[in-house]
Fold these 2 entries.
Entry 1:
Amino acid sequence: MDSQPKSKDFEKSVPTLTRRGALCALAVVTLGLIPKPAVAASGVKVLKNGRVVLSLVTNRALSKVGGVVQIDNLNGRSIALIRTGKGKKAFTALDLRCTHEGEIVAQQGALWSCPRHGATFDLAGALKIGPANTGLRKLRVRVKAKKVVIS
Ligand code: FES
């Protein structure tokens, strides 16, 4: 009796590892955690000059390092604000338009992933996998008392 699986049966039994899956696993190993998914920001004001003012009081996700809030519907663009450290000014704001062809990227664990052609960026916006050639565009962030101003 042959106990060896036939090659087709063996191929079906071996799970495949996608590029995205490998990156997520790498993030878990290197960072020790996966940030919680971005939540919709609250307490947002868009000024006439285009600056976005966000309350730190109403966006509790930003109280922890790795916290992410997302602001959508800003004249066709979306931005994310990420808590990158424990310091009061440790925030990074990103324009979520993919630098390849402008699709809005989506957070997947510790990464931003483009649904159109698969470009992948780390949580701080650095390019990990093309076809994009550059990281996500960083926006200027100023922290004032309990507000963040993004421009
Ligand atoms: S538009 Fe994002 S990878 Fe092409």
Entry 2:
Amino acid sequence: MSKITRTVWGRQMAFCFRCGYSTFQWPTDRLETHEICGGVNRQKALKEPACWIRLCPDCHREVQGWSKEKQYALKMKFDEECANVDAFLAIWRPKATAQFRAEFAAVVGAIKEKI
Ligand SMILES: [Zn+2]
């Protein structure tokens, strides 16, 4: 099965994962796709649905300063279908130990329960 493209995924995700703004509100079409894993691995992240969250410009600026765990909690909460901690970590921290992966998933799960 081929992966969903960033453009198609973005069209399906018609709301901001942080504040709930939706494209059906005015002003329309303000949403942006954010790669949770930016920087040197951004090119890989552009093709991996497990790395994306959908945000309005205000929340996009805000979320850039969040920990990866907190960002990933938004992913888990609002896009369970494409959320995949292992696929995300394979790009963000390819050399992560099993312990690191388990701890990351546990922290993400704990934050998700509070948002
Ligand atoms: Zn927002």
